């Protein structure tokens, strides 16, 4: 069984300094934290805050392609957790043709926010990985993450290997 979720916050893991997207069920009883990359966190945060880039970012491009090709993004489902990695599916429809596309949850969430698409998580995933809800911490975590983003520059995303 799947549970509809909403993006509650973007937070920063205090130990690893990695961003986390926090999903909550619609009744605010359960929260599902998913560790994500910096670029995806920024894309999700931009969508949450209604910010528009001067040029389309990757998820804006995906949403634009869907619109231009009359491809409806019906839902995303975070369907499993394996070896500490979450897995998601993007369900699309064009006419009567329906396709499921494998996706990282962070990319699926960023696309869902841009296309007003419902976000779902399987009950088994929530049961395994959910945390107690603490609504007071959300705004402080969001502010800490904004401060962290302000310190980033493009070289932070370049690998020196």
Q: Would you mind describing this structure in some detail?
A:
The protein is α+β, with helices and mostly antiparallel strands and 161 residues long. It has a single domain (2-154), classed as Bifunctional nuclease domain, CATH 3.10.690.10. It is 34% helix and 34% strand. It has five helices and seven strands. It has a seven-stranded mixed beta sheet. It holds the Pfam family BFN_dom.
Quick recap:
By secondary structure, the protein is α+β, with helices and mostly antiparallel strands. It has helices spanning 38-48, 58-68, 105-115, 123-129, 137-150; strands at 2-12, 19-25, 31-35, 72-82, 85-94, 97-103, 119-122.
What is the number of E strands? 7
Mean pLDDT: 88
CATH 4th-level superfamily: Bifunctional nuclease domain
Identify the CATH architecture.
Answer: Roll
Strand-helix topology:
Blueprint: E1 2-12, E2 19-25, E3 31-35, H1 38-48, H2 58-68, E4 72-82, E5 85-94, E6 97-103, H3 105-115, E7 119-122, H4 123-129, H5 137-150
Parallel strand pairs: 4-7
Antiparallel strand pairs: 1-2, 1-7, 2-3, 4-5, 5-6
Helix pairs in contact: 1-3, 2-3
List keywords for this structure.
BFN_sf; alpha+beta; globular; seven-stranded mixed β-sheet; Bifunctional nuclease domain; nuclease activity; 161 residues
């Amino acid at each position: 069984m799947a549970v509809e979720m909403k993006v509650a916050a973007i937070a920063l893991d205090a130990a690893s300094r990695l961003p986390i997207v926090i999903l909550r069920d619609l009744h605010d009883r359960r929260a599902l934290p998913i560790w994500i990359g910096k670029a995806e966190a920024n894309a999700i945060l931009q969508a949450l805050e209604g910010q528009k880039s001067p040029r389309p970012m990757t998820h804006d491009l995906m949403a634009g392609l869907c619109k231009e090709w009359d491809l409806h993004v019906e839902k995303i489902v975070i369907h499993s957790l394996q070896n500490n990695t979450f897995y998601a599916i993007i369900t699309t429809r064009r006419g009567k043709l329906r396709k499921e596309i494998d996706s990282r949850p962070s990319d699926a969430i960023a696309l869902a926010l841009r296309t007003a698409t419902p976000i779902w998580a399987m009950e088994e995933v929530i049961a395994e990985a959910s945390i107690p809800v603490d609504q007071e911490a959300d705004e402080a975590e969001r502010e800490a993450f904004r401060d962290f983003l302000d310190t980033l520059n493009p070289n932070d995303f370049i690998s020196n290997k």
